[in-house]
Write a structure and sequence with these properties.
The protein is of the alpha+beta class. It has one domain. It has a two-stranded parallel sheet. The longest helix is centred in the middle third of the chain and has 6 residues. The radius of gyration is 14 Å and the shape is elongated.
């Protein structure tokens, strides 16, 4: 069964080889926890 996906979000770089093995790419990688990212109003300016 295929779903037509080309990539998956929020995959750590150390896991990209798993995606590649299945013909996928990482479309967005996490760089920091959500508490210190866009969830913090200071970072939305």
């Amino acid at each position: 069964m295929t779903f037509g996906l080309v990539g998956i979000d929020l995959v750590e770089p150390r896991q990209w080889n798993i995606l590649k093995k299945h013909g996928l790419i990482c479309t967005m990688t996490p760089s920091h926890p959500i508490e210190t990212g866009l969830n913090d109003p200071v970072n939305r300016q």
